[in-house]
Specification:
Elements (H helix, E strand, L loop, with lengths): L2 E9 L2 E9 L2 H8 L95 H10 L5 H17 L5 H24 L3 H4 L6 H36 L3 H33 L4 H16 L3 H15 L6 H11 L4 H11 L2 E4 L3 E8 L2 E8 L5 H9 L3 E3 L5 E4 L6 H5 L1 H4 L5
Antiparallel strand pairs: 1-2, 3-4, 4-5, 5-7, 6-7
Helix pairs in contact: 2-3, 2-4, 3-4, 4-6, 7-8, 8-9
Length: 420
């Protein structure tokens, strides 16, 4: 019987196979690495060792109670020679006391109040690129500079007013936006004197000019209807007593001059046509009654005595009765001022608006005067609550006292802040 054994190896990257054929089985077993199995008998198998159980520990015998005589410490009979005597140490305390630690805290630095930031005109400057481009596209090279100069004049008037910083910033930001829009249109307009008449887009440039005019009209309307009334209201609200007295004196002189002019024209009319001009005398009488309403009784008496020479009031007329009451002292200027104060008493004032009483011919009203005319959203909310626009006395939104809610009016500043 033939036995074959094969072995494959890889030598120097090449795969080689060696085959051996033999008749001898022992040689074949050696080549293959065959080992005969070994068998063990049952008796030869080792038994598992049993673990010994741990023996129970013997309890120590109870100690006998010592007698009183045996309380003394025992001393060993035999002592080593020259043994040093041990000193007893003092028992250590269980708790150790440490010295109290004192912590020093640095005092808090008191920060000084920062000064209020004032508005800076440079923060609201126009777009320099648009100004330069407008100058380049203009014939004289200064159209953009003229627009910037006009803008600065408007801004200086707002800065010089008595408005609050928040109101000034709102007005200037709106004005800045309008002027930048105007400059963007100006920068696109190129006259034919600059570009030349050849292939000049006349229709396109005319459309830009129309838009420039519309934008300039919008700036003028914004200034006349929003900015100027706001400046005048702020000046009126923030006047000192001395300024009010000075303005009152100027108004008295102005009304007295108008009164005299009306009477002189009525007298000249009589010289020409044989009768007084009743219209001029009516204007003079109106000036006289305005002096009474303002509490200037001295001026009222002076005007009445002058006007009575030409009109000759009867004793049953209301004007003559009023003059008689003033002469008798039943009405004083203090009582009229008190009445006017109560009729126009201020209920609430903030940076954006003022709420006060107002007496008109129709009766007592409540008026809300905004320094800057509010946006349409707030106007709609006011009209829904029964307010309407009142153009006299500086302008404002008025309503009847029954419909007025002071808490809601005070909350306008917070609830409608972005519409103010």
């Amino acid at each position: 019987m033939l036995f074959t054994a094969r072995e494959t190896k890889r030598i120097n990257g090449y795969k080689t196979t060696t085959t051996v054929t033999t008749d001898d089985p022992n040689v074949a077993k050696k080549l293959v690495g065959y080992q005969e199995p070994t068998f063990t008998m049952k008796n030869d198998v080792k038994k598992p060792t049993e673990k010994k159980k741990p023996e129970a520990k013997k309890l120590p015998a109870p100690k006998k109670a010592k007698s009183k005589a045996s309380t003394k410490p025992k001393t060993s009979k035999k002592k080593a020679k020259n043994e040093p005597i041990k000193l007893l140490e003092a028992p250590k305390p269980k708790f150790t006391l440490s010295a109290p630690t004192i912590i020093f805290k640095e005092p808090k630095k008191v920060e000084k109040a920062k000064p209020k930031e004032t508005l800076n005109i440079n923060d609201y400057s126009l777009n320099k690129n648009l100004i330069e481009q407008t100058n380049n596209n203009s014939m004289m090279g200064s159209r953009g500079s003229f627009t910037e100069r006009a803008y600065k004049e408007y801004v200086n008037k707002i800065m010089a007013s008595k408005l609050s910083d928040s109101q000034k910033s709102k007005l200037i930001m709106k004005l800045q936006k309008l002027f930048n829009e105007s400059l963007s249109l100006d920068s696109r307009y190129v006259p034919w004197t600059v570009s030349g008449p050849a292939r000049y887009p006349q229709q396109k440039m005319n459309a830009i000019v129309d838009r420039i005019f519309d934008k300039n009209n919008e700036i003028i309307k914004y200034w006349e209807k929003v900015v100027e009334p706001a400046i005048s209201r702020a000046e009126e609200m923030n006047r000192t007593k001395e300024e009010k007295d000075l303005i009152q004196q100027k108004n008295e002189l102005k009304s007295l001059n108008n009164f005299k002019n009306n009477i002189n024209t009525a007298v000249e009319w009589k010289k020409k046509y044989g009768s007084y001009n009743n219209m001029e005398l009516w204007y003079a009488e109106r000036q006289m009654l305005e002096a009474y309403n303002k509490g200037n009784l001295k001026l009222f008496k002076q005007m009445f005595e002058e006007l009575n020479k030409y009109k000759q009031y009867r004793k049953n007329t209301n004007v003559y009765k009023l003059y008689k009451i003033i002469v008798d002292g039943e009405i004083t200027s203090e009582s009229i001022e008190k009445r006017n104060y109560e009729a126009n008493k201020t209920l609430y004032k903030c940076d954006e608006y003022v709420i006060s009483h107002l007496k008109i011919d129709a009766g007592q009203r409540v008026i809300i005067k905004f320094f800057v005319y509010p946006k349409p959203q707030l106007v709609y909310a006011l009209k829904r609550r029964g307010y309407h626009w009142y153009s006299f006395n500086g302008g404002g939104f008025i309503t009847k006292p029954e419909k007025f809610d002071l808490d809601w009016a005070k909350s306008i500043k917070d609830n409608y802040e972005k519409y103010l």
